[in-house]
Specification:
single chain, about 150 residues, mainly beta, Immunoglobulin-like, 2 domains, four-stranded antiparallel beta sheet
């Protein structure tokens, strides 16, 4: 795969550092192992859901954190305990810790997280502040008539 160098963007632009950093981060290869697998769904125009397969993890072994538009999901398995039921001959079910990060767009917030049948569901919503939403501006009529070259009050 061809690697792109975005460093010239940092030294030739002013005010676009955040965009250049996003491009630089997006161009890097994800060195993760793909564990645990996940889905991302668009439920509505401004509602999303991340569903992650975390079979074998208890709720107290999972941590969700958000910081500066990054959602971080951390799973730490407790130490294995011998429960006296026999020894393990083969391990096919993944039993390892993980950390998965998601870059969130501006104004996207985590609203809910729930475990169901070994799946972690994380609900997200985009809440645009009122000051940022488009608004309609009324056009008020003028009380002056403008004719060719001269103004008159109506």
């Amino acid at each position: 795969m061809t690697a792109f160098d975005f460093s010239p963007l940092f030294r030739t632009t002013v005010g676009f550092e955040r965009l250049a950093k996003l491009l630089d981060n997006a161009s890097r290869l994800d060195t993760g192992s793909g564990y645990p697998p996940y889905n991302i769904e668009a439920l509505d125009k401004d509602q999303y859901r991340i569903t992650m397969a975390v079979a074998g993890f208890a709720e107290d072994e999972l941590t969700l954190e958000t910081e500066q538009n990054i959602l971080k999901i951390i799973g730490k398995k407790a130490d294995e305990r011998e429960d006296g039921s026999g020894r393990l001959l083969y391990r096919g079910i993944a039993n390892r810790s993980f950390e998965r990060r998601f870059q969130l767009a501006d104004f996207v917030k985590v609203t809910n997280a729930a475990m169901e049948n070994g799946l972690l569901h994380i609900d997200l919503v985009r809440e645009i502040p009122e000051a940022m939403k488009p608004r309609t501006i009324a056009i008020n009529g003028s009380s002056r008539l403008i004719e060719a070259g001269k103004e008159e009050a109506a």
